[in-house]
Amino acid sequence: MRVTVKNEPYLVINIILAGVIVLIMAYSGIFSPVKNNYPVVCIHEKITGEPCVSCGLSHSFSLILRGKFDEAYRWNHYGMRIFLFFVGELFLRIFFSLRYVRYTETREQLIRLDIWSSALIFFIAFLPFLNYIIKFC
User: How many CA atoms lie within 13 A of 42 on its CB side?
Assistant: First the structure.
């Protein structure tokens, strides 16, 4: 049986997630940390006047793409770990999708592995953000 994307929700989800990650990377590459012309601003900081744990992520991502790692770290201490999460997830979306198409007999185990590994990587990458949210609840 031939695999078509429209008949495979798993592949549709992976394509959408990969697309979102590519858009995040494009956003970081297009907008300049020098010009500070980012269209998305931190709502928390606008409302409270206080920076939040995610403030500076756009700058940090832009600087990481430009190879300025020290400066990226100064904008947001967690920028590199979040950036690596997105890069890793992009590769996982591609890897798991290819495996899903090629090895039809192990799809159920593959999806379980995908869910657990992605959840673990997410938890590790976003732990500081989760702690920040819990602190304010």
Answer: 14
For 10-27, what is the mean pLDDT?
A: 96
Tokens of 105: 């007999």
**From CA 20, how far away is CA 10, in angstroms rounded?**
15
Pairwise CA distance, residues 108 & 112, whole Å? 6
What is the CB neighbour count within 10 angstroms for residue 41?
10
The alpha carbon of 101 is separated from its chain's Cα centroid by a whole number of angstroms, namely 24
* Range 110-133 average pLDDT: 94
Token reading at 21: 């990650």
- Residues of the chain with pLDDT > 90, as a percent, come to 68
Give the helix ranges, DSSP H, for 31-106: 43-48, 57-65, 69-75, 79-102
Identity at 136, one-letter amino acid code: F
Q: Going by C-beta distance under 8 Å and a sequence separation of 6 or more, which residues neighbour residue 56?
A: 75, 76, 79
CA neighbours within 13 Å on the CB side: how many for 103? 11
Q: What is the DSSP string of 87-111?
A: HHHHHHHHHHHHHHHH-GGGHHHHH
Altogether, the residues listed in the chain come to a count of 137
